[in-house]
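Recall the central idea of this unit: under ordinary conditions, the amino acid sequence of a chain determines the structure it adopts. In this exercise we apply that idea directly, starting from the sequence alone.
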Amino acid sequence: MVRFNRREFLAKTTATTAATAFGSATVSMVSAGEKPVKKLRIGVVGTGRRGPSQIRHLLADNKGVEIPAICDIDPQARARGVATVKQYGGNTPEAYGKDELDYRNMIARDDIDGVVVVTDVQWLGKISIDALKADKHVGCDVTGTHSLDECWQLVKAQEKSKGKYMLMENCCFGRETLLMYNMIRQGVFGDTYFGVGSYVHDCRHLYFKPNGELTWRGRLVRDDYGSIYPSHAIGSPAKWLGINDGDRMVSCSAVMTAPRGLHFYAVKKFGADSPQAKIEFKAGDISTTTINTAKGKNIRIDCGISSTRPYSRYYVMQGLKGCYDSRSGVYVNDGDQAAHAWSDQLIAKYADKYEHEYYRKDAATATKAGGHGGIDYFVVREFVEMARENKEPWIDAYDAAAWTSIMHLSRLSIDKGGAPVEIPDFTGGKWKDPNWRKGRMV
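Accordingly, the structure predicted from this sequence is:
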């Protein structure tokens, strides 16, 4: 997929009305030799820190996408959203945001096929559920939902909706992540039984606005605790181990350190007598959650977004024949001979045979597009294809509910001194068939 000049594209195309599942979509006819592209109209809710980047990917990296409307309750963010659409789309979108529920007026529009939700985490689930009830396709930023009840509401809304839901968990689309995904599926490591995922990252500079007021991240660590941002950590191991595809998570146990780092940061930045230094944050600096599956496998996720350390996402996948550790590489021993490749040798050693098709075809395009090293390019492209073709996503509402539930269930385990807590079966038993979602990803 290549970049294109949208103004030039629109000037060269003609639109013909086509009946689709969403009524008013059209097909854009491109120049000779190119395949016709169905027009896709997307509304964006949340145009603050991350929203403009997603708007850019939607418009600059995908043909036939239009954004007729955006929504944000912050006037400055709303203005950035409008400006970004004008820059990459050439049109001035209608802007919503007179109050916290004005997004409902936007998603009610007949000229919107789908919605990308990039708001504070506290609103992601609510907006996604409302959009599904309006029969819109939904691309939701992480972490997805914000309560266990919302997890169930999301699943039920998806099962009744004419739209499709995708959790836009970008870490699952990393080059090494998908390389390992292929190697696991092709049996390189044998039967896999243990995984580790993590999201340990110093985000404290993002907790306060310049005036000292808490941002949504600050409110998150003030009000919640446990594995409060789980999807980056659990997404890849869950896909590697076939969670919800022949296995499922059945219980979790969690422990957490005291929230010392946040207080230390607030005192240093605002002073020992400041209101910020007196906030009682609930989220510990590091939480560790251990998850058991129905087939006796195990996943450990480490979460710490208030720790004094550089950005770190380390992963481990253990199988009978070998293992992958993002910090040390791949080790394989099938009984005859051992082979070890350090992490910086992985792509060169295994790419020819196991490179995922996405990177085999479009690695250079994704890197040029940017966005977390190019993974945002694939995430947004996956959403666009889902919405345009009305196809089932790789990361669906069942995954979103299961992964996000760890946020809430880890807290319950901590309250019980680390005792195991049951994880609901959001699939209603569908997980028992390993092929019930077969073919959702190349």
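The chain is about 35% helix and 20% strand.
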